[in-house]
Amino acid sequence: MTIQLQEQVEPPIQASGQYAIVAITKHGTQIARKLARSFADSDVYYMKKHAQGDEEEQGFTLFEGSVRLLLPSLFANYKGLIIIISLGAVVRMIAPLLKDKKTDPGVVVIDDRGEHVISVLSGHLGGANELTREVASLLNAYPVVTTASDVQKTIPVDLFGRRFGWEWESAEKLTPVSASVVNEEKVAVIQESGETNWWMHDTAIPANIHVCSSISEAFTLQPDAALVVTHRLLDSKEEAILENGVLYRPKVIVLGIGCNRGTSSEEIEQVMDETLKELKISKKSVKAVATINLKKDEKGLLEVVKKHQWDFIYYTPEQLNTKTMKHPSNVVYQYTGAYGVSEPAAMLASGNDRLLLTKKKSGNVTISVGFISHG
Questions:
Q1: pTM for the complete prediction?
Q2: Res 249: pLDDT
Q3: Could you say which residues of the chain have pLDDT below 50?
């Protein structure tokens, strides 16, 4: 495929991978082709004048005209860009395209000899730092990463827990808390729930970072900044720790659900919201909804799960009956073959027989709340 790039014309990009490899020089084209052979999930773009005749067979895209006109489409269609052009030229070309570090793709630059791979943009959130190291390894090149937390081998505040699916409650304090971390000020990491293997470096946790099991323990330290990992809704006194802090929501809650056929998504979600509020649990910490396989096509349930991108897990009656329930029901058994739905489903999906809520019935919905323990 060949693209003719012109001003004010949107090039017809058909992204098949998550990463775009771009070159404009003869040597850059050779690097791009070499990289494509070993870097999966990538699409290659280079200038038509460097065509070698096998581009259609290889699935490579040729272009004519200024590469500057190609970049807006690449920005919009790829998770990451690997560009074999000088750093200065790339900076000038992408400057008008920058929007937000939470949405911009990762951008990595390779020099024309393939000796250096440089993380340029969206190092953490766009994955450019990780991409830089991966590409450098494939090319036997030197990775250049300048993000302070990476260089100093400390906590990347804006990426903390991301690989586990943790969510920020708010991004407002990311920058000042990051400054406290890299400037080696006293930082408290308060973890009440979630995965505990978050330290990713081969060195010890820096002395300025203090791991605490509770907010009250952290208050005694009088930290300059705090990273709080919990599924709980904080009370007004506890929220003071967030004056210079970031609150992370780990995915540790499972909602076991039983409902009558045809129950609306609105009713199901209302019961979920009311229950979580009663238990003082953040909705952002919900990981999955679990039920019986008879409900795997329940429209209202599917709509709620899809809306929040939660895992949807269902079990056979035989699987549900392997769990000992406090309130087995012969009536439920007559209709489903299981002595309960929400309670055993929450146990199975959370891997924990101790539930935060055994069972509550509200209208057409029955709900149980399970907790995934990582400690």
A1: 0.70
A2: 97
A3: 123-124
Q: Domain of 216?
A: 157-249
Same domain, 77 and 168: no
Q: For residue 20, give the DSSP letter.
A: E
Asked if 346 and 314 touch (Cβ cutoff 8 Å), the reply is no
- Alpha helix segments (H runs only) across the chain: 26-38, 55-58, 71-77, 87-94, 128-139, 148-151, 174-182, 215-221, 265-279, 299-308, 317-320, 330-336, 342-350
What pLDDT, on a 0 to 100 scale, did the predictor assign at position 131?
Answer: 81
Single-letter amino acid code for the residue at 101 = K
For 240, the token pair is 């003071």
Do 126 and 174 fall within a single domain? no
- What DSSP character marks residue 47? E
**Cα distances (angstroms) measured from residue 189 to each of 43, 182, 208:** 40, 14, 10
- The CATH number of the domain holding residue 9 is 3.40.50.11220
**Is residue 151, in this structure, part of any structural domain at all?**
no
Contact 193, 213 (CB under 8 A): no
Long-range pairs of 214-223 with CB within 8 A, sequence gap ≥ 24: 214/190, 215/190, 215/241, 217/190, 218/188, 218/190, 221/186, 221/188, 222/186, 223/186, 223/187, 223/188
End-to-end CA distance of the chain: 53
- Asked if 44 and 70 touch (Cβ cutoff 8 Å), the reply is no
pLDDT confidence of residue 326: 80
* 365-371 and 253-259 strand pairing: antiparallel
Domain count along the chain: 3
Reported as type and span, the H/E element at residue 188 is: strand 187-191
| Residue 171 structure tokens | 């991004």
pLDDT value for 264: 97
Distances (CA, A) of 152 to 91, 122, 136, 227, 335: 25, 18, 20, 18, 60
